[in-house]
Amino acid sequence: MSSFFGSNEKKPIIQKSLTFNSSNGLSYVQNNRIVIEIPADSCPYFDPSTSYLKMNVQIDLNSSDKNYLLQLDPYLGAGILCRDIIIRNLQGVLLEELVGVNTMLNVMEQYSANENNQRKAGLTSGQVMHNPNQRTWAADETIVEKSRETNSEFNPWFVKDATGNATFCVVPICLKLPSGIFNSKRIWPNQLMGGLRIEIVLEEDRKCLKCLRNATPAALTGAGDPLAADRIFLPVLDHEDGAAQAAGWANASKQTKFTLSWKNNMVSAETVPFCVGESLSVFDGVGAQILGDIASINWVTISLLPSVYQAEIELAAAYTSTAVIPAGSVVYSTGFTGRGAGHDPFITVSDVSMVVEQIYPEPSYISMMEKAMRESGGLVYDCHCWNNYRHAVGASDVVATIQMNLLNRMAKAIVVVPTILNSESLANNVVNYGGSRNGISAEADGCQNFQWFYNEKFQPDRPVEMDKISAGGDTFNGQYLAEIEKAVMFWGVPAARTYRNINTNKIMARALALNNQVVNLTTGDFQLIANYTAPSESKLLNCWIASVRRFKVTSQGVVVTL
Questions:
Q1: Mean pLDDT value across the chain
Q2: What's the fold here for domain 2-211+345-561?
Q3: Prediction pTM value
């Protein structure tokens, strides 16, 4: 039995870029299925590692709604739109199926991100890049680095002018598919495999869209100060028009204009996280006042201190305060809340195609491969792939014992991504998550520890404690970090470069085989045991197994082994 050569082998070849358009429509919305076919005769061989999905993506609002600023998840960009990826050959043989693949991609991005990757993704896939003008300052004047979540100045999803008018953009996207086949370093023998049919199912809008972290707080009701967690991100009121510097807003004062403090690094009208037409409120720590809609945002010189510039908000109608609004009260958008049915923003995907780099191997090599397929029992093509085994956990389950019936004979690692099963509206999802997490992030929900059972014993020999990360603090369990780092490396992340947002993407993981070895998971029980304290959410456990997938090509067709 023979094997195909890798794309990094030194062989004289010619390359040519080919584009294959989607075959079932011109534009798509949430839950739609995109179909792209790559016929064998049109592209016999190609390099999957350089292939990418090309499309246009735009966020838009209902025409009758007030304006507000939205973005796709700033860390994933357009990658969050791909919910499912199904790849078959043109004879119908299932080659790869990735259900809920964006939950996997979300974790991979977290652990592999570095500045170079982020900048590239900002240029190609709609991620939001770091903006030093919009770093957030805490009360003690230390920097809280959240500029990718708060970037209104250089955001791919919308543009703002110097007076606060905003327009959502049509964003051209070039996206690497999170697929084992399309991440392989080996030349894909499309002719021998029988061509490809790629199906991509789009995610729900409510799980993809996010507000700016510095525009809308995560909670608007509750005891005490409901904005406490988000206060450091939100703009603060300085003074009403014509008042003394930092005087706040007097009781019963009728004004059309007010200024925002220079804090939170607002250095221009573009860095103010609001837009014309957006509805604003102010919260002083006790109660809220609805100020009204924005008519313009300007960058002005304060008369009392000519050397100081500040953002000036002009309202569409004058507002009379019902109580004193102290300087330092937070100002936030309510444009996204309080809307009725049929008024959700939406995402449109259009002009979808797959760009592949066609390879022209030497004719003698092709002949050798075809002869081997006929005479030596077939050809073998191995690649690193993933399978998702889904299991539901109830909101009141304090002990979850998950029996997994696994089909993987050459497994390397498992990563479990517990996502919240909720039916909240898009508005509630976005406001509740704020800018800190998206609708597909892993949530611990009070998980204290976890342990695996396979090969007739518990592994590791003691439960992996995760009570600290579950509590959301700044300290983590050492054993947990060690397990996660090993697992994600053998799962498919080249190196754990960062633990960014680990508190908002809490996974359970295990390296099943080390040093590029594999383990057969079909021969016995495989269980996950997770212990919870006061869980409150129904969860869907996305159990991602990384394994070697083998494609055997014979004269009778293609056989797939997990």
A1: 86
A2: Adenovirus Type 2 Hexon; domain 4 (2.70.9)
A3: 0.92
